[in-house]
Amino acid sequence: MTAINREYQLVFETFVSEMMTAYNVQGIGIVGFDRENVLYEYINGYRDVEQKLPITRDTIFGIASISKSFTTLALMQLVSKGVIDLDAKINQYLPEIELSAAHMPTIRQLLSHAGGFLPQERFLMCDVLKTLAASDSEEPAFHQTLADEGLAMIVKRINAMQDFTGAPGQYHSYSNYSFGLITGLIQRYGGEKHYSTYMMEHIFKPLGLERTFLAFNETKKCNNITKLYENVLGHLNALTDYRDQGFVLLGGGAIKSTLNDLMTYTRLYLNDGKINGQPIIDSALIKAMALPHVSVKPYEGYGYGLVSGRFSEIDYAGHSGGLTGVSSFFGFSKTTGKGIVVLCNTSDVPASAIGIAALKLINDVIPDWQLAHFDGMLWTPAIIDATVGVYKSEEGAHIELHPGDGTVIWHQGDDVLRVLPVSTDAAIVYHKKTWSYAPIIRDADGRAIALYSGSRMVRRQA
C-alpha cells in the first residue's frame, strides 16, 4: 500500500479547507483507495449541522449525475445481451420520437451527450406527481404512471424542437434529456417492471451495494443520512426532501449512496467489470465507457456516462454531480488502479475540482485541481463586439457578456465573473477558487452564436 506524501496531503487539505470556506460547505467526505485498500480518508463538517451529527463512510448522500454512469452500466448490460444496438437510431426503440432523419441521434451519441439537443427545461418529479394526484405514500421511484408520463413529456418536447446544437455527433452539449431517453430504454427493454427495479436487481444487489437506492420515501426512514444544504441570498437552507429538484426520469440523477458503496462501485471499473471475480458487465463495454468518444475541452473528453481526461501521463475517468444539497464526484485511473469518491451535502460546490486534486494526491502528484494551463491574450475591439450579447437556454441559463478592457465581463445571476481570453474562440471564466473553460461557437463572419457554460451549449439571443 502506497503511503500518502505528507507534504502533498497538507497542500490538499489546505485547498479543501479553503473551498469549504469559500462555498460555505456544511459537510464533506472523501475516500481514496486502490483495488484492495483504503489509501486516504478525509471527513469534515456534519451530516446534520443543527444536531452536530457526524459523517461516516456509511452516511447516505445524494449523488446526482454520478447516477448517469450507473444508468450507462445498465444499458451496457442490455447491449451485451443483444437487446440494444448502440449504433441504432433512438426511434428504433422509441418509435414515438419523430425527429427528421438529419436530427435523429443514435444511442451511442446520446450516451456521449452528442445527440444534438440544446439544454432544455427540467421537468421536476414533484411537479408531475401533483398533476397525477399521487399520494405522499406512493413511492415515486416505482411509480409506473410517473415514468410513462415523464418519458412522454420529454418526447413531446424533443419532437417540437426547431433548434439543435448541430447534426448528431457534431458537438458535445450536456443533456439531461438524453439520459431521460436512456432511462426510458431500460424501463421498456430491461425485462423488469420499472427502471428502478432493474437497477436494484441487476446493479445494486449484484455489487452488494446495501445502502444505495433510488426510492425517495426511504430517505425518511434511514439512519445516518445527510440533510441537504443550499446557500440562497446569504441564507443557509437545510432541507430533508430528496424529491425537491428530482428530474422526472430517474436515470440522470436520482441515486442515493455512500462513500463505502461508491468505493465498491468504482472498483468495478478498476477490475474490468468484475466484483469478487464475477463479471457484472462485459469488460470491453465497461472499458469503452471510459474512452473519450467526443471532445469536451482541450484536456477532457466524454465517453459513455463518464468524463475522461489526463494528468501527469495518467489517464482517468469519472463524473461529477450537482443538485439541491448535493455536490459529488467519483474518479478512477485504470493506469494506476486507484480511485476517489467525494460526497458533499451542500449545493454548487465544485466537487470535481476537489476530486481531481484528491486523485492526484493518491497518485503522488502535486494535488492542484487544474488539468491544463493556458496563456492569456487580449481580444481586439472587433472580437469583443462580435462576442458581447445575451445568451440563454431553456434550462434556465441567462448570461450577459459586456465589453471589458481587452476581454468581456461575464454577468450570470448575481455574479460578475472575470474572463481571460485564451484564443479567439475560447476563454477562462474565473469563479471563487476555480475557473472553467468556455468555448465560443462563431459563424463564418466571426460573430458568436453560442458559448459553453457547465459543458452546455447556450445560444446567443441578442
What would your notes on this structure say?
There is one protein chain. With 462 residues, the protein is α+β, with helices and mostly antiparallel strands. The chain folds into 2 domains: 365 residues, 3-Layer(aba) Sandwich (Beta-lactamase), CATH 3.40.710; 80 residues. The protein contains 11 helices and 23 strands. The strands form 5 sheets. The chain has a 9-stranded antiparallel β-sheet with strand order 3-2-1-15-14-13-12-11-10, sandwiched between helices. The protein has an 8-stranded antiparallel β-barrel with strand order 16-17-18-19-20-21-22-23. It has a two-stranded antiparallel ribbon with strand order 4-7. Strand 1 and strand 2 form a beta hairpin. Helix 1 packs antiparallel against helix 10 and helix 5 packs across helix 6. The radius of gyration is 21 Å and the shape is globular. It starts with 5 loop residues before the first helix and ends with a strand. The model has no long low-confidence stretch (mean pLDDT 96).
Taking the alpha carbons of the first and last residues, their distance comes to 57 Å
Strand order of the largest sheet: 3-2-1-15-14-13-12-11-10
**What is the mean predicted local confidence, pLDDT?**
96
CATH topological fold name of the largest domain: Beta-lactamase
| Fraction of residues in helix | 25-40%
Class from helix and strand fractions: alpha+beta
Highest CATH level, the class of the largest domain: Alpha Beta
Weakly predicted, low-confidence segments: none
Largest sheet data? 9 strands, antiparallel
Shape: globular
Number of helices: 11
